[in-house]
């Protein structure tokens, strides 16, 4: 009984993730990049700790994008007018995702670089 209740509590979260992926453009880019990162990591046979770092970066970027989407939806419900605070709120949240995505890309390059160099020559 308690297990079913716990499992049902995940349903709204999963629905939110699915809806965000279906409706959002940026999250589709992040999911595509995540799939590419995972495939590349499999191909390069990275270490367990490197897998943990790559997966953590993927989780952080996608989570940040979901938070950004939630902030945008909330701001859009509060005001329909072009107000400075609304623009700044949305831009700041998007900026946070951008910083995390760039940082994750750099982390990926640092991890994958030695493997790629080894393959190339």
Instruction: Give average pLDDT, whole number.
Output: 94
Helix content: over 70%
Task: Identify the CATH architecture.
Answer: Orthogonal Bundle
Low-pLDDT windows of residues: none
Number of strands: 0
Report on this model:
This protein has a single domain, classed as Helix Hairpins (Orthogonal Bundle), CATH 1.10.287.3610. It contains five helices and no strands. It has 121 residues and is mainly alpha-helical. The N and C termini lie far apart (58 Å). The radius of gyration is 18 Å and the shape is flat. Helix 3 (25-44) runs parallel beside helix 5 (84-120). It has helices at residues 2-8, 11-23, 25-44, 48-78, 84-120. The mean pLDDT is 94.
In short:
This protein has 121 residues and is an all-alpha fold. Helix content is 89%, strand content 0%.
Record keyword descriptors for this entry.
mainly alpha; Helix Hairpins
């Amino acid at each position: 009984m308690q297990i079913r209740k716990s499992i049902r509590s995940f349903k709204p979260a999963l629905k939110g993730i699915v809806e965000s992926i279906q409706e959002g453009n940026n999250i589709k880019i992040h999911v595509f990049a995540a799939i590419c990162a995972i495939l590349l990591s499999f191909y390069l046979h990275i270490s367990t700790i490197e897998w943990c770092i790559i997966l953590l970066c993927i989780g952080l970027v996608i989570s940040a994008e979901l938070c950004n989407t939630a902030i945008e939806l909330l701001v859009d419900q509060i005001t329909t007018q072009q107000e400075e605070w609304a623009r700044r709120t949305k831009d700041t949240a998007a900026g946070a995702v951008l910083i995390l995505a760039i940082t994750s890309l750099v982390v990926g390059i640092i991890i994958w670089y030695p493997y790629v160099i080894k393959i190339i020559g």
